[in-house]
Amino acid sequence: MTEKALRLGTRRSKLAMAQSGQVAQAVSQVTGRPVELVEITTYGDVSREHLAQIGGTGVFVTALRDALLRGEVDFAVHSLKDLPTTQPETLTLAAFPLREDPRDVIVARDALKLTDLPRGARIGTGSPRRMAQLNAYARTHGLDIETVPIRGNVDTRIGYVHKGELDAVVLAAAGLHRIGRIDEVTDFLSVDTVLPAPGQGALAIECAADNADLIAVLGELDDPFTRAAVTAERSLLAALEAGCSAPVGALADLPPLSAPLERGDPRADRQIVKEMRLRGVVGTTDGTRTVQLSTTGPVPQTHDRAVALGRELAAEMLAQGAAGLMGERAH
Ligand SMILES: NCc1[nH]cc(CCC(=O)O)c1CC(=O)O
């Protein structure tokens, strides 16, 4: 007997199709059921011009969630960094699969790295978070660069470099990896230089909150460390009351080791490493003022502890004046 296919609702952008396809394969493997992609088209897909005005990625998330709530699809895959921090009660994030590389990267002309860019180099990014941190880095490291606001999908953005309109653009490693263009990266930016967006590099698999059977099978794709990390990062973002386009960077990862690793050292095993470091940053887009803090402790073992970790770091950031740096928004 052939089992009925599970329906995965997806946007039709190249990135969305790539990540939905990858998750579809994984889900089909754990469930033994075929997974069928159902393309959800929104006004935002039809008109890029209007997307800026109607509110960025929010429209896509809303359209996917409407399809889930109407029962037209069984589950959906989101780029976590594009997902609002408020979760509707009727829907559940059933799995956070193992996170992809969370770093931001540069695609530059002539294989240039960030520190090789010539005086006056123009770097394209529409993200106030990236602008703030790149400009702050430039100020403290004697780099003379200009951040230029751009928008559009990954192809469009890389196109600015190929056409010679910009010296470099900033993108997420994860997106390039998923669409098979990671080879075009000319510099992987250290997270000490640019902290990624909360949830960057992670996907979230969402389904109806009352579908216990589906939640259970999707849960097999969940990576507990990824879940703890992104929950803390998104809690930090929510506590800073920042919109998705605000200049907030956050990353929870393994803390640096106090001593170099030897071959066979058990600390290399993530199961044995029990510590997590959470870092957060906010700054003005011109890079003149930033508040960056970090905290290290045991990997939170429950949702509530991960949420508390993010809130605590946000509270410390607010106490150091973070709120005053968050007035700016992307256009
Ligand atoms: N805002 C666009 C977006 N949303 C998710 C990704 C891919 C990276 C990810 O999944 O975190 C990107 C592209 C980018 O920032 O370069």
UniProtKB/TrEMBL annotation:
> Which SUPFAM superfamilies does the UniProt entry name for this protein?
Periplasmic binding protein-like II (SSF53850), Porphobilinogen deaminase (hydroxymethylbilane synthase), C-terminal domain (SSF54782)
> Could you tell me what reaction this enzyme catalyses?
4 porphobilinogen + H2O = hydroxymethylbilane + 4 NH4(+)
Q: Which Gene Ontology terms cover its molecular function?
A: hydroxymethylbilane synthase activity
Q: What is its EC number?
A: 2.5.1.61
Gene3D superfamilies reported in the protein's UniProt record: Periplasmic binding protein-like II, Porphobilinogen deaminase, C-terminal domain
Which pathway does this chain act in? Porphyrin-containing compound metabolism; protoporphyrin-IX biosynthesis; coproporphyrinogen-III from 5-aminolevulinate: step 2/4
Mind listing the UniProt keywords for this protein, alphabetically?
Answer: Porphyrin biosynthesis, Transferase
Q: What's the record's note on cofactor binding?
A: Binds 1 dipyrromethane group covalently.
GO process annotations (BP): protoporphyrinogen IX biosynthetic process
Q: Any idea where the Porphobilinogen deaminase N-terminal domain is?
A: 6-214
Q: Which residues are reported to carry the modification S-(dipyrrolylmethanemethyl)cysteine?
A: C244
Under Pfam families, the record lists: Porphobil_deam, Porphobil_deamC
- Looking at the UniProt record for this protein, which Gene Ontology cellular component terms does it annotate, in alphabetical order? cytoplasm
Name what cofactor the protein needs: dipyrromethane
UniProt domain Porphobilinogen deaminase C-terminal: residue ranges: 229-318
Q: What else is known?
A: The porphobilinogen subunits are added to the dipyrromethane group.
Instruction: Give the protein family.
Output: Belongs to the HMBS family.
NCBIfam families named among the record's database cross-references? hemC
Fill in the subunit field for this protein: Monomer.
User: What HAMAP family does the database record attribute to this sequence?
Assistant: Porphobil_deam (MF_00260)
Function (record text): Tetrapolymerization of the monopyrrole PBG into the hydroxymethylbilane pre-uroporphyrinogen in several discrete steps.
Protein name, entry field: Porphobilinogen deaminase
> Which gene is the coding source of this polypeptide chain?
hemC
